[in-house]
Amino acid sequence: MNTYFVVLRHKLHCRQGQINRQREVVVNKARWAALANFFFPGAGYLIAGIKRDIAFLWLAGAITLTIVEFGIRESEPTLYWVMFAAVFVMNTAFAIDVYRLSSGDQR
Asked: pLDDT tens digits for 49-66?
């Protein structure tokens, strides 16, 4: 085989390895951001480095909502479970959103 083609194939293989490592870092960051956004909506956006201007507002709202949620646990147990389910669905949506945005998945 011609030396030129061997060198070219090696360069392409090395470049593909770099792209795969970069993609792996992006996916790892997206996973951490999704996990953070599930538990603290807004925090995942800060980790991913996107929507920073509104992320603090989401985070403040989530903390306030959590305080209210735990405040009604004993006084209104039925409402607590409704609110718990609503917050769970909302946090899942936030986690999916930050994962898609930070990993480049634009479905």
From this structure: 998 889 999 999 999 988
Q: How many CB atoms lie within 10 A of CB 70?
A: 11
Question: Quick one: how far is CA 17 from the chain centroid?
Answer: 25
Query: To which H or E segment does residue 57 belong?
Result: helix 52-71
What is the crossing angle of helices 77-103 and 52-71, to 10°? 160
The C-alpha atoms of residue 52 and residue 70 are separated, in whole angstroms, by: 27
Structural domains of the chain, count: 1
pTM above 0.85, yes or no: no
Output the six-digit token pair for 22: 């970069």
Q: In one letter, which amino acid is 42?
A: G
pLDDT at residue 97, as a whole number: 93
